[in-house]
Amino acid sequence: MIPDLIVLADTVHTMDGGHSDPIQAVAVRAGVVAAVGSRLEAQDWAQDGTRVVDLGSATLTPGLVDCHMHPVFGLDLTIGVDLSGAAGLEDVRTLLASESRNDDAWLRGWGLNPNSFGEVPLHRSVLDDVSGDKPALIRLFDGHSALANSRALEAAGIHGPCGFEQAAEVVCDGDGVPTGLLLEAAAMELVQRHIPQEPFSERKARLADLLRDFARSGLTGGHVMDHSEESSALFQALEADGELPLRLRSAPWCMPGSDETEWKRLARTMGTGGRRWSVEAIKLFVDGTVDNGTAWLYEPDTHGQSTAPFWPRPEEYAAAVRYFAARGIPTATHAIGDAGVEYVLDALESLRGDVPADILRGTVHRIEHLETVPDGLVERFKGTGIVASMQPTHCTHYSLADQSDNWSIRLGKERADRAWRCRDLREAGVTLGIGSDWPIAPFEPLPIIADAQLRRRSGHPGEEPIAPAQALTALQALEGYTSHAAKAAGLWEVSGSISVGKRADFTAFDLNPLTTDPDEFAASAVLGTFVDGEIQFMLDRTA
């Protein structure tokens, strides 16, 4: 064995539990791990032509993988002014007014948190006051809603309620006049289609910058929860230029109103891709979000909302899942509310009688988000093989321990107390993949790993933790980005640990994620990333 590369580090967490002696050296040959051992053993591995990267006191782990992200879809969601830091309505107005002076044709913004409006209802008049003669469309932080001004509604020909195949809504007042609030994709698209399209070259450049930022943050892969023809074109173009620094596993959307003809078309896309990107699963939605009243709950929220599924005829959702599962195609379903999670569990459990056992065993099905679930639903996960995919910063960034935030108020105390039950799911033996849902929340994995342990925002020690009993251990949080991320994609045989024969994807840290205080770890440096044994990013410590 003549390795192409040897990586040395004082601490190596292989995440496979198979070594009694400390590992400090990893050999790579042809993009896979060829050997693991001590620094002394590594002296015998090196040959002429072997590159040796000595990371000194660093910690090396399997490459971090974000289990839920939207890099291409996020290009649209992050145009204009970032409103995520607005502390109140006056901040929102100030930021929008400044952006309006700079934007040419449309006023755009994103990341708007309804908590910043306080008791003021979301209404087009807020935008009308600052947008002048420009049409405006502002995305709310949840990605499932937007606020349009009067000019934008006029440009889109929206004058009253609209009907949709999915549970979407043009919100209107008591007189049937649109308020400007648009709920879910179909309603937002009515306005979105009138906005001038960004040139492909600009989108490619923005995506390249974003993916480089992902690599610098420690990511070596991502589960992309959307896909389109444009996504394929962008990934192909970046890969041709050598600018795809991490692995991307995509899942196109299957939406209400689709039929078997559309399902067949989606099935034909499975396995397509390039060297580092591929289409491997189907993404579905069974509900929306708590914050805008489109989640699917057993009982209405405190506004009388969140009572209906995203698929007006939910049995069609179950039929779609059955179609893909029977063909060995993994599914990932967005389900936030308790009734939504239960319906997905019912649909997936019913596959046992409809899908051959060998196909069912070999296919991973996931539920995304699971924001509020009672004990009984946690118990139902046991032994099913169904994966939970969750985002700790949805909890720590958008809710508060005193439950004074919009999410908690809508749910009420009992349901808010069942928030993001990461620890309970792990203790039930469930595979738990962790991610960011970028651009809904920041993508940097180190703060997310810390937040999963702290149940508050890292770097804010004065904040009270939210449901602290649901905190993950340091090992569980790291597993969510490594071994459990691989299992969530059905890739444990080839990735997720530093083991002989597996992909040589690594992340190097300045500090040890398993022994460092979470707040300190969140603020520490990523030293480098490797994909296929090739350096994608290496921190220049001489700068």
Q: What share of residues is helical? A: 25-40%
Overall geometry: globular
Residue-averaged pLDDT, rounded? 95
The CA-CA distance between the termini, in Å, is 36 Å
* Number of separate strands: 25
Helix count?
A: 21
| Multimerization state | single chain
**Major sheet, described briefly?**
6 strands, mixed
How many whole angstroms does the radius of gyration measure? 23 Å
- As a percent range, the share of strand residues is 15-25%
As residue ranges, the low-confidence spans are none
Model description:
32% of the residues lie in helices and 20% in strands. The strands form five sheets. The protein has a six-stranded mixed sheet with strand order 8-9-10-11-13-12, with helices on both faces. It has a six-stranded parallel sheet with strand order 16-18-19-20-21-22. Strands 2-6-23-24-25 form a five-stranded mixed sheet, covered by helices on one side. By secondary structure, it is α/β, with parallel strands linked by helices. The model has no long low-confidence stretch (mean pLDDT 95). The radius of gyration is 23 Å and the shape is globular. Helix 18 packs antiparallel against helix 19.
